[in-house]
Fold this sequence. Notes:
alpha/beta, Rossmann fold, 52% helix
Amino acid sequence: MHLFGLTGGIATGKSTVSKMFAEAGVPIIDADLVAREVVEPGQPALAEIAQRFPGVLRADGTLDRARLAERIFGDPSERAALNAITHPRIQAAVLEKTRELAEAGAPRVLYDAALLIENGLHHGMHGVVLVVAPPEVQRARLMARDGLSAEAADARIAAQLPLDEKRRHATWIIDNGGSLEDTRRQVAAVLAEMRARPADSL
């Protein structure tokens, strides 16, 4: 089985590209979904979070993400404490999902993660798909999606690892700044190259 990474900058349309790969029959492991699963009620990570960060659970026992975000925002030590609880569980869950898909005979799997490169998760994968869009497109999408000012949108974009830096680690680049039809054609071309890779390719 080949494991590929999918990443991109904020508001480049990574989710749109991920959906296109899924529609083409490629199983997707979504890092965001896994991160939510490991903190569901009954999971060990949630109990640890509640102990380390008192007051972040709602009355129904679910995690109040907004309150937790307030606790760790701007405090690297608090963020590190949270990551120490969640990251090992996320990695274990991803490995288990990957193993299950391999045992089921999936020839290729796509791991969708916004911080794939920042966290060094691209090392050892069979290839990385990077979704990009022009800065003005990112800005317009962020402003429309999150109700941000141009300055606030630019600040969000600037807070991420620059796309030019991510390009250095990409096997394929999909420009999602145009039409959906154009993006779909690029996805099809990348998928064709993925399928052409020999089994022992790394």
